[in-house]
Amino acid sequence: MKRLLILGAGTAGTMAANKLRRRLHPDEWRLSVVDQSETHFYQPGYLFIPFGRYRPDEVSRPSRRLLRDDVDLIHGEIALVEPDHNRVLLTDGRALAYDYLVIATGTTPRPDQTPGMADGRLWRSSVFDFYTYDGAVALASALGDFRGGRMVVHVVDMPIKCPVAPLEFTFLADAYFRECGIRDDVELVYVTPLPGAFTKPIASHRLGSMLEERKIVLETDFMVESVDPDTKTLVSYDEREIPFDLLVTVPLNMGADYVAKSGLGNELNYVAVDKHTMLSKQFPNIFAIGDANDLPASKAGSVAHFSVEVFADNFVRYVGGKPMLRRFDGHANCFVESGAGKGLLIDFNYDTEPLPGRYPLPWLGPCRLLAESPVNHWGKLAFRWIYWHVLLPGLPVPLPSHLTMAGKHPEE
Amino acid sequence: MSTTMIGGREVHVDEEGFLTQYDEWDEDLAKQLAALIGVDLTDRHWTAIRFLRRDYRSQGETATLRRAAQLCGIPIKELFQLFPKKPAKKMAYIAGLPKPHGCV
Predict the structure, then answer these.
(1) Per residue in A312-362, pLDDT tens?
(2) Closest residue to B104, CB basis, from A237, A238, A298
(3) Is the CB of B101 inside 8 Å of chain A's CB atoms?
(4) Separation of alpha carbons A6 and A273, rounded Å
(5) Active-site amino acid positions of B
(6) Parallel, antiparallel, or unpaired for β A186-191 and A217-219?
């Protein structure tokens, strides 16, 4: 009996387990998933919690119910991977042997990595993260009490989970303050380490104009050194200072600490993999999928989804001694909420930046790419149902995992 | 892909002036590139630049600021002093490597 061990029951780990369980013979393969939490969170939903649009219970389900019955779920915290002995140690002393290991423990915001940020005087009273469940819930109550002042939305460094989320949060906050009738009393500032609103030129320009239209100040090339808890100020390495009344930050994102301790991580604890197959560059029986690897792509659910489709097909061939035929192209697409019931959609990969056009059907859509429309907003809301009922069970989604240029307009 | 003359020799560059051929670079050229952006090279600069060259050869990508600071032992704060304003970009420029791309 061969043993496949998947570390992490998030988006990538759950999808991979459900897809592979169907395709690996139960008499030949035992498939286990390890996670320290018994709850699976729908992370895209965190964006809506601060504005009271989702109740906290709408974004979580028990992990057990999302995995097929014939997948073992082991509840425990991972201490160490010992690749030379093909085993994983848990903090409670259990040792789990494997023939093949899939690392899918994602990435986590780490406020402790920026001096002053996690200071008890500020953290979750005037400094908030929103890409954790607890952070989003705490921010909902802070926004409810906010009557005006300077709100700074801030990104520490790339890469981050869902790179468009801080922009979406800013657009939604602008709309929210308008609805509350206090927009004129709020100064909104968007602070980024990037040279513009977003990384890729066309999207950066479009999203940058959207900030301008909303009178949101954009501060670029800002590499934060520390947060001063006494003066409530962001301080950069080149000694710029940005004061705030309310700071909504995306802390440094890092992979799990056990990855580093096991000698498998880069400077941010991400596992180095081949960018087309997600196979470890160090060990021939270890893959890393979803946010846990160092792919030069977005750390986003859509990348996890498209790449896991490629991975699952490849894995079945690989363990059968056949060459891996499919190559992941870095494909991602993301709905970008822009407030007031509208949204944008962007579709891109390693080589092609987000372009205007239509998706998924060329010229017909119904979604417009890189342009605001209500359809994109409804698409984003409908996606939650698709996530629970189609994506996580590993059922086929009728979208190609590779990017297509049909319906896109590079010249526009 | 265009070429330009730097210090009396022809090199391949992208539209922003970053060298595109790893092997067209040497330490003499680095001095010329540094002079073009107003950086006087000290031993500390060289530590960073030589790290970036080695790291690119093994990784195939230009190191980010955080990676450079961690692996060559020069704190980010000091990299900002050595290569003012845009250290990641300036280091890559002098080391003759592609501009580091912030991951999307």
Answers:
(1) 999 999 999 999 999 999 999 889 999 989 999 999 998 888 999 998 888
(2) A298
(3) yes
(4) 16
(5) 103
(6) parallel
B36: Cα separation from own chain's centroid: 13
* Close Cβ partners of B36 (under 8 Å, ≥ 6 residues apart): B6
Pairing assessment for the beta strands A60-62 and A72-75 based on DSSP bridges: unpaired
Our CA-based measurement puts residue A118 at a distance from the nearest CA of chain B, in whole angstroms, of 20
- Cβ partners under 8 Å of residue B1, min gap 6: B12, B14, B20
* B contacts of A198 (beta carbons < 8 Å): 104
- The candidate with the shortest Cα–Cα distance to B30, out of B53, B14, B63, B4, is B53
Tokens at residue A345, please?
A: 């959609």
Residue A326 and residue A314: Cα distance in Å, rounded?
6
Mean pLDDT of A349-377: 88
Query: CB-based contacts of A364: which residues, under 8 Å, 6+ apart?
Result: A358, A407
- Selecting from A158, A268, A348 the residue whose C-beta is nearest the C-beta of B102 gives A158
pLDDT given for residue B102 in this prediction:
60
Chain A environment of B61 (Cβ under 8 Å): 296
Cα separation, A105 vs A292, whole angstroms: 6
3-state helix, strand, coil in chain A (%, to 5): 30, 30, 40
Which of A124, A134, A162 has its CA nearest to residue A49? Answer: A134
* Contact state of B103 with A298 under an 8 Å Cβ cutoff: yes
Minimal C-alpha gap between A348 and chain B (Å): 10
3 state DSSP class of B10: strand
Q: What is the pLDDT of residues A193-202, one digit of tens each?
A: 998 998 788 8
Would you say B44 and B36 are in contact if contact means Cβ atoms under 8 Å apart? no
Number of CB atoms found within 10 A of residue A255's CB: 25
User: Smallest Cβ distance to B71: which of A163, A200, A267?
Assistant: A267
Contact across the interface for A158 and B85, Cβ inside 8 Å: no
Assigned token pair, A411? 């010249």
Is A348 within 8 Å of B101 when comparing Cβ atoms?
no
